[in-house]
Amino acid sequence: MIRLSMVFWLAAIAVAAIFLYEIKHEVQDLEEQLAEVHGEILRDQEAIQVLKAEWSYLNRPARIAELADRYLELKPIQAAQIASFGEVPQAPAPELPAPAQEASAPATTNAPAADGIGNLIEAVAVEAPAAPQSARQSAPQSTSAPAPQRAASQPASDDRPVNPVTGKPLPIAQQSGGGVGQPVQLIRTGAQQ
Amino acid sequence: MIGRRSDKPEIALRSPCGLDVGPNAQTFVALEGSAKQSMETGKTRLVIAALIFLFAFAAIGVRLFDLAMLTQGNEPSLADASPDAPLETGRANIVDRNGAILATTLPSSSLYANPRQILDPEAAATLVAGVLPEFSASELTARLGADRSFVWLKRNLTPRQQAEVNALGIPGLYFLREQSRVYPQGALAAHIVGFNNVDNRGIAGLEQSFDDLLRGSSTPLQLSIDIRVQHVLTRELQAAMQEFQGIGAAGLVMDAKTGEILAMTSLPSFDPGAPGEAPADARFNRATLGVYEVGSVFKIFTTAMALEAGAVSLESGYDTSKPIRIARFTINDFHPKNRWLSLPEIFMYSSNIGSVHMAMDVGTEGQQRFLGELGLLRATSFELPEVGQPMIPSTWREINTMTIAYGHGIAVTPLQVTRAMGAVINGGQLLPATLLKRLPGETVPGRRVMSQTTSAQMRWLTRLVVQHGTGRKADAPGYLVGGKTGTADKLKPSGSYDDDARIASFLAGFPMDDPRYVIFAMVDEPQPTEATHGYATGGWVTAPVVGRVVEQIAPLLGVVPRASEEPEVVENALLVPARLKGPPLAAN
Fold it and tell me: For B487-496, which contacts have Cβ atoms below 8 Å and span 24 or more sequence positions?
C-alpha cells in the first residue's frame, strides 16, 4: 500500500516536474518572442517616424504647387465658383406619365425588374392601362390615341433609350435632358481647425 | 545523568503518534527519571514540529484551493504585458494646426574613434578621408593619433556614409546612435520653428522657447500655423520681393477672433537644418524681432483713436490745402488734394495733414494712452524668444504726436500692428497673439480697447480704402478686403529720412462684414519698376500681395464669398458725409 502510493506520488512529482520544465521553457520562448516583437514594434515605429517625415517632406506645399502646375489643369478657386446650397436651382420634376403610357405590357415582360428606377417605371407601366379611362383622357399625352394600341403598334424599346448593358429602359430624367439649367459647381469648403 | 536500565531493553518501534509499527506490540519500555524526561521533551518537540508542518501545509493547501477554485474568474487569461512604450525620440515633434510635421526627430549615427585602439592612424586616416571627403588625411591623422580615448569624427552621418565607414572595417572606429532634428518643410516656417544646436538643444524660435517641453514629452507641439496659408503668404511675398528687388519682406496672417497666428513669414529665410550656413540677415525674424516705421498704416490707429475719443466723427473733415510747418519740419501729403477733405477721404487718400490734425485734436496724452492700450508701445508677450522692443520717442513732444499720427517717429514690429489691427476690426477686443493652436470653443482673454461702433466704422473706412482709395489692388472679389496702405521712408544712418529707401506695407482684414482674418504684408526697400509707373508704395507693392493671398487662402479657410458688394458703398457717397450716418455703418 505504501509502496503503491509512494510510486504514485513519485510519478506525480516526475510528471509535474516535466510539465513545469516544459511550461518554463515555453514561457521562456514566448518571452523571447515578445522581446523580439517589441523590438520589431520599435523598429517599425522608428520607420513610421521616418516615413512620416518623408511624407511631410514630399507634401511640402511648394512641391505640391509645382506638381499641380505641371500635371494638373487646375487653378485656384475663384470666388465666383463657390456657391451655397441655397443657390442651386431645383432639379426639374421627372415627367413620369409620358413614357409610361407608351411602355405597356410588352415592355414590362421584356425587362425584368432589377433596380429601383426600373421598378418604378414598370410599376407605372403596369398600372397605366388599368387606370380609369377618364383619368387617362384627362392626361395631355393620351388625348390623341388610346395608349394600348400605340403600344401594340410601336414596341416600347424603340421609343426609349435603352441601357446597352442591361437592355432595360433608361430612367426618364436622362431622356428628358435639358431644363437642369446652368451647371453649378459646388465646392465644399471646410476650415480645418 | 544516572538512571536505572532494564536488563534487556526491547525498544519497540513506535510512530510518533503512539501506533505500533513493529512486531513487539506487547513490549514497551518504561523509562523513568531523566531518561523519561528527555523522551517527553523529544516527543513534545516532534509534536510541535508536526504542528508547524501541518500548519504550513494547510496554509499552502488553502492558498492552492484559493488559487485554483476561488480566484479563477479574476485571473487574466493573458499575462500582463506592459503596453508598448511609445518611441522615445528624445524630442517631440512640432506640427502645424492640421498635423503636418514641421520638425521631427529621426535616428542617425555619429562616428567617433578611440585613438588608443587604432593601430595605424595614418592608414586609417587615408581610408576614412576617402569616404568622408570633408576631412583631409593629415587632419584625420592628427586626430586619430591623439593620445585620448574619445574623438568625435562626424555627427549625423547619412546612412550611405555609415555603410561605407562600416565597410572599411577599421578597429577603433565606433558609431554612436543619436537623434537628429529634421525639418521637412525646410525654410518655409524656419523663423517660427527655429532650430537646435548639434546636441539637440533649442537655440532659436519655438525650439528654444519650448525646449524643456519638447524634450520632456513625445506628444507633438501643435501650432496655430496653417502650412498652406504659410506657403501662399511666403510665395506671394517672395514674388513681390523679387519683382521690386526688395532686401527683405515680412508677412503675417492672424485670426482676428482668437489671436492665433496662421502664417508668419520673414524673408529671406533659411534652412533650419543648417542654420550655420545662412547669413545672419536670413536668420533675422523681421516679423517679430524687426521694428519698422510702418508709415500710413498707423493712420488706422490714429483714425480709430480720434473716433473713439469723440474728437471727430465720420462727418468731420479738415482743410488739407496747407502743409503743416513745425520747427524745421514740413508735413505734406503724398497725394495732395489741396482742399477740404472729409474724414473718409482723409483715410482713403491717406492724407498726412488730415491725420496730423486728428491726432492733435486728441492730444499727446490721448495718443500715448490709446497706442499703449493697443499694445504698440511695449514688447508683445509672445511664444518666440525673438520679440522686438518697439522704438518710441523718449520724450513725447508735439512733433512726435504729429509724426506718429502717420506712422513716422515710432517703430514697431509687424506682429504688433497685426495684433492691434485685430482689435480694430474684431469689435474692439485686443487679443493675445499666439503661435499655439487654441482648442475649439476656448475662451480667449481679450481686453476691450475701443467700442463696437468705432470698430464698425473702422471696418467701413478700411473697406473704402480698398474700394476707392489707395489700396484698390488689394481687392479680392467676394471677400470684402479692407485695409490701409503704408509707405515709410527709411531712416538713414545720419538720422534723416532717405527718399530712395522705403518700406511698403499693407495692413488688411477680411471679410469686412464679419472680420475673421488680419493680414499684414511688408516689403523692405522695394525699387520702383516700369510696371508701377515709378511707384514703390504700399499700394503698388504690397496691396496686390494681400489681394492675391486673400484670394487663395479664403477658400482654404472656409470663408464663404459674398455674392454682391454692399450697395451703399458702391455709390459715391463720400463727398456727402451726412449720408454716412446711420445703420449701414453699424450693420456692417
Answer: B487/B295, B487/B296, B487/B334, B487/B536, B487/B537, B487/B538, B487/B539, B488/B292, B488/B293, B488/B294, B488/B295, B488/B296, B488/B407, B488/B408, B489/B295, B489/B408, B490/B293, B490/B525, B491/B293
- As a whole number of angstroms, the distance between CA B318 and CA B343 comes to 7
What cell was used for A20?
A: 513545469
Distance CA A75, CA A69 (A): 8
Query: Cβ–Cβ of A193/B184 closer than 8 Å?
Result: no
- How far apart, in whole angstroms, are the C-alpha atoms of residue B448 and residue B428? 5
Catalytic residues of B: 296
Closest by Cα among B376, B352, B365 to B398: B365
Q: Which of B87, B226, B477 sits opposite A46 (nearest CB)?
A: B87
Residues B428, B430, B436, B440: what is their CA dihedral angle, to the nearest 10 degrees?
Answer: -40
Select from B106, B186, B479 the Cβ nearest to the Cβ of A53: B106
Query: Highest mean pLDDT: which of A3-17, A99-113, B75-89, B477-491?
Result: A3-17
Find, among B64, B50, A2, the residue nearest to A10 by Cα: A2
Q: Which of A37, A56, A88, A187 to mutate to test the interface with B (most CBs of B within 10 A)?
A: A56
Rounded Cα distance, A66 and A149, in Å: 65
- Tens-digit pLDDT profile for residues B441-460: 888 888 899 999 999 999 99
Q: What CA–CA distance (Å, rounded) separates A63 from B270? A: 17
Measured distance CA(A147)–CA(B439) in Å, rounded: 67
Q: Helix count (H) and strand count (E) of chain B?
A: 20, 18
B101 to A49: CB separation less than 8 angstroms, yes or no:
no
- Report ipTM (2 d.p.): 0.72
Measured between alpha carbons, how far is B294 from B291 in angstroms, rounded to an integer? 9
- State the Cα–Cα distance between residues A15 and A18, nearest whole angstrom: 5
Q: Is A5 on the interface with B (CB under 8 A)?
A: no
- Cell numbers that stand for B430 in this block: 485686443
Quote the Cα angle for B481-B487-B492, to 5°. Answer: 155
pLDDT tens string A56-100: 999 999 999 899 989 998 887 787 788 777 777 887 777 666 554
Question: Which residue of chain A has the CA closest to B89?
Answer: A46
Of B101, B555, B560, the CB nearest to A53: B101
CA distances from A30 to A16, A20, A33, B21, B77 (A): 20, 15, 5, 52, 15
CA separation for the pair B387, B390 (Å, rounded): 9
Q: Give residue-wise pLDDT tens across range B44-65.
A: 999 999 999 999 999 999 998 8
Say yes or no for a CB contact (<8 Å) between A54 and B184. Answer: yes
The full 3-state SS of B212-263, as one line of letters, equals: HHHHHCCCCEEECCCHHHHHHHHHHHHHHHHHCCCCEEEEEEEECCCCEEEE
Nearest Cα residue to B563 out of A99, A61, A36, A80: A80
Confidence of residue B18 (pLDDT cuts 50, 70, 90): low
B193: Cα within 13 Å, side-chain hemisphere:
35
Q: Which residues on chain A are in Cβ contact (under 8 Å) with B478?
A: 79-80, 82
